[in-house]
Amino acid sequence: MEEVQILSEIKDIRVDMTDLKQDVSDEMKGMKVDIDYLISKTGRHDTELNERA
Description:
The protein is mainly alpha-helical. It contains one helix and no strands. The longest helix is centred in the middle third of the chain and has 50 residues.
């Protein structure tokens, strides 16, 4: 392989890794929202159970 071709492939890999990093970051943000939502639902449910008792 020529040096230019190798450098081009390295650049492509870096771009792919940057895209992957952003995708993972976006997924983690979504998971945090889901977790926060579930925690809030659990808290309300526990409060409702305690009020009924």
